[in-house]
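Many introductory courses stop at the sequence. We go one step further.
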Amino acid sequence: MAAGSVAPALAAVAALVTASIISADLIARGGSTAVQDPVVAVPEDATLERLERRPPTQHSILTEPTCTRGAHLECFTWAVRADGAGFDAVTATGTLLVSEQALDGSLVARSLVDGEVVWTAELTRGFSGGVLTADRDLLVHVDGGDLTGRDVATGRERWRTAELGRFAPYQIHRSGEVLVVAGERGRRDPHPAGLPHGVAAGLDPRTGEVRWMEESRTASLAAGGVTVVTAYGGHVQAYEPTGELRWQVDAPFDTGGGEAWAVGHAVSIQHDGHGRHLYRLHDGAPLGYEGSVIVADEVHTFADVFDGRSRFVLLDERGEVWRVDDVDRGRCISGASLEATTVEISTCGGGRVTLDRADGRLVARLPPPTTRADAFGGRRFGQIGPYELSNADPEAQAAAVVVTDRRTGEEIARLPAATHPVWRDLWWQDADLGGLVVFQSRQWLTALPLPERPWSGAPSAR
C-alpha cells in the first residue's frame, strides 16, 4: 500500500495544502557550515515547572539546514530550497522525489541520489490538490479538480477523471488490475447534509475508469488494499479491492458521531467520541481492548492498548501474536519502528525500549524513561532509522529540530522548525529512501545519508 502518517496522519497530510512553491535552487553537497549551539540537555524538574507556569518565549529562528560542527558524517547529501511560499506536497517513489508546485503550475521530479531535476510537468496554475501519492509506476494527484494519473518515470499524463469530484487521494494501492484509492471530497464538493465526506473507489490503473465507488463519513486503506469505510447509516464496512463487501459491523454510533480508521491488519473504531476499540481486519471481530496503532508494515501491526492496564500488542492477519505487560516506557510514546528482529519504541522524554519482534521479550532499554520530560511533552519527536529528532529548546516557539545519532548521542544537524520526514509510505512509516532520509520543511528538502542496518546500536538490557 502507498500513501501520500491512522486519523492524525491524514490531518498532517492535509495541512500541506496551504503551501506553494515558485522556484527551487540546488545547493551543493555539504550545506551550510554555520556553527550552532551545543546539544540541549533534558530539562531539570525546576525548569519544567517554570515552563508549565508561563507561555513559551520566542528565540532566534533557524532558517536553513545546518550541519553541526564535528559531525562524523559529511552531513547532507543534498538540499533544495524553495524561493516561494513552500512545497505543497511531496512524495517519494522508486528513485524519485516528486513535489507539487501550484503557483508555478508544475510537478517537479528529482533524483533521490543527488537532487537533480529529472522531469517537470505542467499543472493548472494556482490550483493545488495538496496530495501526491504513488504506487509502482503510477503517480496520482489532483490537477484542476480532476484526479490524474501520470507515469512516474517520465511525468507523462496517462489519464484523468472528474467522476470522483474534487477528491483528495490520501492513499492508493495497486491490487492486480484494480487501483484502490481512499480519501475525501473537498470543501467545494461537500456532502448535502454537511457531513464529512470520505470516498473509496476502485479504478482501472491504465485508463482511470471508475469501476466502483463508496461514499461515507471516512475511508481508509488497510493491508492488501482492503478498504474500510464509516458508513452514514452508523456501521463500519470493509470492501475487497474488487468492491465486494468483506464484512460489516454495526457499531454503536449514529451519523452524528464515531468513526473508523484502518491501519495494517487492525481497524480502530471510535464510539461517539469515546475510546478507540480495535477490531480484526480479517473478519471484523473485536479484539477486546481499546488502543491506538503506532506503526505497521505488510506483516505486523503494533499497537498501544488498554484493557484495564497498558500493554503493547503485536497483531498479524489473524489477530494477536503477542502482548506485553509492565513495560516501563514513560508517559508518552513519540514513535516506533518495526525492524527485522525487533520493535524499537522511543518516548517523548528520550527513553528507548527494544522488544523482540518474535515474542515481545524485553531486549533493552536505553536510557530509562524521563517521566518528567515525558509529562512536559514535545521535546523529542521520535526516531528515523538511527536518528532521533528533538526540539532544540523546549522554551522556544518555532525551535529548530535537532538530528542526533541515537547510537552515539552525537548531534548531526539542525533543521528549520516544523521539519518532518518524507515517508515512502506514510502508513508503514518507511523513511528509508534507498540509503537516504529526506526531511521536508516549508522552504527546504534536505537529504541525509542513512548508515547501513542494523541501527539499534548496543544499549544495555535492564
